[in-house]
Amino acid sequence: MIIIKGGALVCPDGLRRGDIALDGGTIAHIAAHIEPAPGDTVEDASGCWVFPGFIDAHTHLQCWTGMDWTADSFETGTRAAACGGTTTIVDYATADRGVTMDEALDEWHRRADGTCTANYGFHMAIADWGPDSAPQMRRMRDAGVSSFKTYLAYDHLKLTDAETLQCLECVRDLDAVLCVHCENGDIVNELQREVLAAGITGPEGHPLSRPAEAEADAVSRLLYLANIAGAKVNVVHLSTKLGLEVIRAARTRGQQGIFVETCPQYLTLDDTRYLEVGEDGFAGAKYVMSPPLRKPADIAALRDAVRAGEVDSIATDHCSFNLHGQKDRGVGDFTKIPNGGPGIEHRPAVMATTFEGELGPMELMRLMSEGPARVFGMWPRKGRLAEGADADICVWDPSARWTISAATQQQAVDYTPYEGMEAHGRAHLVYVNGVLAARDGAPTGEKPGTYVRRS
Question: Of 272, 355, 413, 441, which has the highest C-beta tally within 10 A?
Fold first, then answer.
């Protein structure tokens, strides 16, 4: 067995000092003291927090986005995730138009199976709706996919409101969750034309074409549709105060089954980043993601919501593209910059650092482990320290001090939006299914990640 000794265990019912024993892929025993037997591996966790492995429930790895392939494969992306303390990801498999969900799921398995350091599950994104869509969704449910995604933006992905309602009704009947990208795509398309016509072609045009109102309008439509259907929804990558106010209003009306996800970038970075010049005059393109970075007032409102417990999970929307060779194809037209940014490796450190003194280990655990496990059908196997749970563990050293840099990251992309940030805390030991996958930010070379069937 592997015995992790003397750490502060972040358990569902609170913190306690103790030891934890891993036997194969399972937590075998938790106690104040566990005496090692001959042959046991002992790791000293004194001064560390022992978390259930973090879960990133919003990633796009090895994915064609309509413009280009993402820079990170499942191999590089899950390796980076594990080095940061994340032991499970849930990636968006996408059934593009003309592709069945069964074909998409098979393709995502081909990309991921046998290559992953962290565990992986799949949401199923639906870009086309027809008579066979509901039976396909039932087959996905049988295959361990308990969440789906639709879009209210992007012409090649979005469903109509009527199609979204039909999808929500199926989600309700399957006791699943629908994740939705909430932007009014028609408004975005029109504003993109207007901004370009005004001669604004650089990255600063991106947030101008995707205002907060476009998000709030889409969140409102989604929540009313979900209320009609009686379905559970997850508002992904919430970025605005206006969108948050819409969610608060629906909850105040008594609507149930509303889950909220936001991301570190919307809690730390504002839209002045689009004005960065850099060596080639195009550094602002690093931050072209959708939704875009917002105003300081939006950041403040979302941080308040996180502290107040109104947010269910923190994910990354990791969708990495290199600045050079990919994003710079949009020089002269910001609409041609591939949308997305990296974050899968640095989410725990960014959260622990920027909320230092505001969120303790219990709150971080609920946002990055327990919350996503509960929302996405992995609880109680994952997201908690308990005997019989999966042996996915992050031993976190809160005293570590290090600088986030693209030069030392595992993500297969040529930048990080958190370049130069002094991080307070680091994943010291990371176990995936009881196998040591990373130590002090470096991979061990093991690939113990397996597919997670979700209930």
Answer: 413
